[in-house]
Amino acid sequence: MITSLMDTNSKGAYAEYMFACECLRHGFYPSFPILDSSVYDVLVDTGSNIIKVQVKYTAKVPSDRNSVQVPIMNGNKVNYTLEFVDYFAIYSEYFSGFFIIKNTGSIQALRLNSKKGSKYELQFNNFSFNE
């Protein structure tokens, strides 16, 4: 359980390890880069492919339409390119799970909602790494 005593960096690290554990639970093999300056946070070996994943954490609560808006750009305010990141795994504390979303190369922010009929409903806790 993520607590209010944790700083932002600790919450992000916690989300990365939760993601890795979920990958293991789904039969995938996660690996972490040695340097924290790597563009991706986790490599996931699916058995047929190696996927580069950028993990994000948000504690935001819905403002309207029961959705949470999450910025996706990197620290330099630049989009994550397809060369360096294949998927985003955004852990939402409010929804208690991960949204696994394929990188398009131009994502700046996402409006997340796990409700039936929402845009990212099928990506909520879906570790199949499909669109």
Q: Could you provide a short overview of the structure?
A:
The protein is of the alpha+beta class and 131 residues long. It has one helix at 8-25, and strands at residues 29-31, 42-45, 50-58, 68-71, 87-92, 97-102, 109-112.
Account of the 3D structure:
The protein is an alpha+beta fold. The protein has a single domain (about 10-125), classed as Trna Endonuclease, Chain: A, domain 1 (3-Layer(aba) Sandwich), CATH 3.40.1350. Helix content is about 15%, strand content about 25%. It has one helix spanning about 10-25, and strands spanning about 30, 40-45, 50-60, 70, 85-90, 95-100, 110. The strands form 2 sheets. A 5-stranded mixed beta sheet has the order 1-2-3-5-6, with helices on one face. A two-stranded antiparallel ribbon has the order 4-7. A hairpin with a 4-residue loop joins strand 5 and strand 6 (about 95-100). The radius of gyration is 14 Å and the shape is globular.
Jot down its keywords.
single chain; 1 helix; two-stranded antiparallel ribbon; 5-stranded mixed beta sheet; about 130 residues; alpha+beta
